[in-house]
Amino acid sequence: MSREAAFIDGLRMLAGHQAARGLLDDAAVLEVGGEALVLTHDMLVEGIHVLPGQDAADIAWKLVATNLSDLAAKGAEPVGVLLGHMLGDDDECFLLGLAQVLGRYGVPLLGGDTVAGGSPRSWGLTAIGRATHRPVPGRSGALPGDGLWVTGELGAALLGFEALRDGTGADSAAYRRPLPLLAEGRALAPLVTAMMDVSDGLLLDSWRLAEASEVSIAIDTAAVPIATPESRRLQALSWGDDYQLLFSLPPGTQPPVPATQIGQVEQRGFVPLFVDGQPIANAEGLGWQHN
Amino acid sequence: MSREAAFIDGLRMLAGHQAARGLLDDAAVLEVGGEALVLTHDMLVEGIHVLPGQDAADIAWKLVATNLSDLAAKGAEPVGVLLGHMLGDDDECFLLGLAQVLGRYGVPLLGGDTVAGGSPRSWGLTAIGRATHRPVPGRSGALPGDGLWVTGELGAALLGFEALRDGTGADSAAYRRPLPLLAEGRALAPLVTAMMDVSDGLLLDSWRLAEASEVSIAIDTAAVPIATPESRRLQALSWGDDYQLLFSLPPGTQPPVPATQIGQVEQRGFVPLFVDGQPIANAEGLGWQHN
C-alpha cells in the first residue's frame, strides 16, 4: 500500500464506521435539528487541477461548481459556501468568477479565510447543502438487478482541456466552467438506489460505486454517449471533470431527466467491474486518481 | 487601498450585509431546522503560519485547534470538521496529531479532500459547531459601559514560538498546541455582549471588536496578565496565536470563568481604540495582519 493510501486509510479509521465508506470521496451527511445537511470540501491546486496561468475567474467557477456537483449527487440544495483563498495577482478576476458562479446558482458566500502564499497556489471550498429527500442518496445503495444510468455525454471536459491547453480556440467551457446538475440531482434523489457525480472518470467512478455498494457493475461502453470521436471512446470514459450524474435505478424505473442506461448492477462477482464483459481486477489506470 | 484589501472588500460585498461585518474574520452563523450552526474555515500555509519543517503532528493540532477556538468564541460545541490536506512525506505524523486533537475534543472527522502539491504546502479546515446559546455571541454587540475582559495570559505563544524557532528547549507547547477554550466560551456565551478569540494580537483584535461594535475601547495595558517579562509587555499584546477569549460584559457582571478586566467599552469617540489613554488612529502595526 502506498503512503498516500495508508494516510487516507488512517483518515477513514479516524472518521469511524459511518463515514468510512465514503470519506474523502463522498460528501458527508449531518443530521441537524431534523434536517439532513450535506457537507463537502474540495481543494484545487495550481498545475494539478487547473492549468498554470489559467484564468482565475474560471478557477473560482470550477472550485464552486465541483463542490456544488457533490451536493447535486446527494439531491441537496446549496445553502452556502466557505472559501479558503490564497492571494495572488489575479484576485480581481477570481472575484468576478466567484460572483458569477454564486449568482448563477443563488448560493451565498458565508465566510472563509484568505492567506498569503506562493506557487503552487491552492484553494479550498466547503459547500453546505440541505437534503431534499430522505434517505439521502449515497454510493452504497445499488442493488443487483438495478440499471446503471448516466446523464449527458462523457468526454466533453477532455476536449475542453485539450482546446485550452493547446490554444486551439475550440470551445473549452466544459473543462473551464462545469455545470453542477443540481436540478437533475433533486429530481433523481427520490428514485435512485445510489448516485454520485462523475468527477474522476466514468469507469473509475463506476468501480467506486460498485465497491461502496458491494455489488458488481457491468458496463456496456458502446451505450455511453460520448462527446469525442468514436476512436477516443475509452479515453472519454476514463477522463474526469465531466460532472455528469451516475446512478442506479430499480428495474423498470425511468429517470425523470435525460439520461442513458449504460449497464447493469449485479450480485458481487469476483471483481467489482466488468467492462464489455471483461473483468477489471484493479482500479489502477481506470481514471483520474484522487490527488 | 491595497489589492488584498480590495479583494477582501469584494468578498464582503458578495457575502452581503449580514456577513459583511465579520466575513473572513468571524465565524458564520447559519439557521438550520431551529438550530444555529456555526461555521468557520481557516487555512495554514507552510512558512507563514507554521515554521518550515515544523512537526506535522503539531500542524494538524493547530489547524484543528484554531478553528475550534473560533467555535469557542461563539459558545458553540463542535459537531465535526472537514479537512483539506496537501500530501507530504510526514503524513503519518500529521495523522497522529489529527487523531490526538480530535480525540481530545471529541470531534468527528466528517470528510474532506486530499491533494498532491508542492512547497509551500497548505492545509484547510472547516469546523462546524452547534450554538449553545441565542443570540450567538459575535463581535458587534459591545455596549458603552461594558467592561472588557480577557481569559488567561497573553504572550505565551510568543515565547513558545521563539523557543521552537531558536531550539532553546524551553516549552513551546503554547505555540505548537494551542488549547481552544470551548468550555469557557459556552459558560460565557449567555453573559457576554460581544466575544472573539485573540488570534492576531490583543490590541488588533480589540480594535476589530470596537470597529464591529461601533464603540471605542480603552485598554489599560498594565492590567493585562502576560506570560512574558514586563519589558516585553507591548509585544505580548501585539502577538497572535494565544487563542484566549476577549469579551465584553455589562457593568457589574462577573465572568463565570477565570478572567481579568483589562479595559472599558465607551461611546464611539474619534478613534476605535485607546491604549493607556493614547488614541490609536490606525490598526497598522497593532498585531498580526490576517494573511
UniProtKB/TrEMBL annotation, chains A, B:
Coiled coil: none annotated. The keyword Ligase does not apply. It catalyses: thiamine phosphate + ATP = thiamine diphosphate + ADP. Mg(2+) 2 binds at D42, D70. Residues 25-130 form the PurM-like N-terminal domain. Pathway: Cofactor biosynthesis; thiamine diphosphate biosynthesis; thiamine diphosphate from thiamine phosphate: step 1/1. Mg(2+) 3 binds at D26, D70, D197. Mg(2+) 1 binds at D42, D113. Pfam families: AIRS, AIRS_C. Substrate binds at H49, D241, W288. Belongs to the thiamine-monophosphate kinase family. This is Thiamine-monophosphate kinase. It comes from Croceibacterium mercuriale.
